[in-house]
TrEMBL record:
Organism of origin: Popillia japonica
Function: Accessory subunit of the mitochondrial membrane respiratory chain NADH dehydrogenase (Complex I), that is believed not to be involved in catalysis. Complex I functions in the transfer of electrons from NADH to the respiratory chain. The immediate electron acceptor for the enzyme is believed to be ubiquinone.
Chief location of this protein within or outside the cell: mitochondrion
Family statement drawn from the similarity comment of this UniProt entry: Belongs to the complex I NDUFA7 subunit family.
UniProt cross-references to InterPro entries, sorted A to Z: NDUA7
Annotated protein name in UniProt: NADH dehydrogenase [ubiquinone] 1 alpha subcomplex subunit 7
Length: 103
C-alpha cells in the first residue's frame, strides 16, 4: 500500500467535503504509514543518584523525606523597631483565616 492508497473518496469529493467542513478532514482510520513505530529509539539519559546497585537505599532516595521547613537565610532588623543591635525579630506568620485544630 503506497502513500495515496488509503481508503477514501475521490479527490474531487475530498475537496468538496473539505470546503463544506471549512477545514482539512482527518480520517478516523489509522493506516500503518501514518502511525508511529512500535520500537522508538531508547532515551539517552545521564546517570542519576539512584542508578548504582550498591549503597542505594530507599530512604536515602525518597523525595518525601527530603522536604523540610524553609531555612531562614537572612534576618534584617527594622530601623527603630528594636532597641538592641543584636535582637532577633520573631513574628508569627499571618494565616488566611481561622485555623482549625484537628486534634
Amino acid at each position: 500500500m503506497g502513500k495515496g492508497d488509503f481508503r477514501d473518496i475521490c479527490p474531487l469529493l475530498q475537496r468538496f467535503r473539505n470546503f463544506l467542513l471549512g477545514r482539512q478532514h482527518t480520517k478516523a482510520l489509522r493506516f500503518s504509514p501514518e502511525v508511529a513505530t512500535r520500537s522508538p529509539p531508547l532515551p539517552n539519559l545521564p546517570d542519576g543518584p539512584s542508578h548504582r546497585l550498591f549503597n542505594n537505599y530507599y530512604y536515602s532516595r525518597d523525595g518525601r523525606r527530603e522536604v523540610a521547613p524553609p531555612a531562614v537565610i537572612n534576618t534584617q532588623n527594622r530601623i527603630g523597631s528594636c532597641e538592641s543591635e543584636g535582637a532577633v525579630i520573631s513574628k508569627k506568620g499571618v494565616t488566611p483565616g481561622p485555623v482549625y485544630s484537628w486534634d
